[in-house]
Amino acid sequence: MNAFDLMRARRSCRSFQDRLLTDKDREELLGYVKEYSEAPYGGALGKAPIRFAYVEAPLTVWPVVGAREFLVAIAPKEYNRLSVVDVGRALQHIVHKATKMGLGTCWIGPGADHKSAIAALGERFDAEQDHIICFCAIGYASFLMPFFIRTIVGIVQRRRKPLSDLFFLGETLKQPLDTTSAPFDQLGRTYEVCQWAPSSFNAQPTRCAAIMDEAGETIVRFDFFATTASRYYAPVALGIWCTQWELGCEALGIQGHFEILSSEERGGAAQVVSVQERQAHYDISWLPNTPL
Q: Which one, 52, 91, 143, 267, has the greatest CB density within 10 A?
């Protein structure tokens, strides 16, 4: 299965088997946790450290049943938006690796009970310095699922906005991007895996704008925006998109990097623009190492 098929095949697992990971699988998973916590995948975007604490305990979560193993994403208590983006980006890399291992995963944001996690973490959590961003349940998927959860999942997981609502041409986010025409078609299924990226309640708060050179012939960068004022779930979702984007580009052999650009570096483009009756706030840009 190629990278695109793997990303598309991944689903939020809402029901887990009543058994723990094998020692082999747990060791491999925690190796990825260590790897992506240290950010060798391109470097953290924020300067504040993040970490993912492994917890073996029946934390209080919804709507998930049977989960007994979790990664708890922790960032500094002092708010740093880029660190929250880093949580989404790094944890999605771990989720991708877990999916490749054949494990079930589920991002849990609003349905996560922080008190149960803090109790399970014990001395690994400092209330004066730490802030829990989200959980990720990990384990072996079960085919048995309560009817009410199966109903909710059936509705939510199949609901996605069209690409024309997510990708745009130009920094004003007014013109939908024709992802099938040149030169944008070079990104292939990268658009698709971002479209199907997980987000809280599948709200899909991230938008992306392709920015061309002055001649309008080559792509110089893609700007990413959040369309809600959420301090946590929107930047986490944007970080997840960043991972889907870089994994897609990697699969296509397209090299690039993320940068946070000032308005001046973006040619005077506004940091906040209106799109679909919402305010879109600029967060980050992806620049190809050579124009596309």
A: 91
Q: Is the Cα torsion angle 40, 123, 107, 281 positive or negative in sign?
A: negative
Measured CA distances, 77 to 53, 115, 131, 133, 226 (Å)? 16, 15, 5, 10, 22
* CA distance linking residue 47 with residue 22, whole number of Å: 35
Q: Are residue 8 and residue 143 in the same domain, yes or no?
A: yes
Structural domain harbouring 256: 163-288
Residues contacting residue 114 through CB under 8 Å, at least 6 positions apart: 132
Measured CA to CA, the distance from residue 72 to residue 108 in angstroms comes to 10
Q: Assign residue 131 the CATH number of its domain.
A: 3.40.109.10
- Label residue 266 exposed, middle or buried (CB < 10 Å: 0-12, 13-18, 19+): middle
Stated pTM of the model: 0.94
Task: Summarize pLDDT for 201-237 with one digit per residue, the tens.
Answer: 889 999 999 999 999 999 999 999 999 989 999 999 9
β-pair partners for 69: 56
Measured between alpha carbons, how far is 59 from 93 in angstroms, rounded to an integer?
23
Quote the CA–CA distance of 21 and 91 in Å, as a whole number. 18
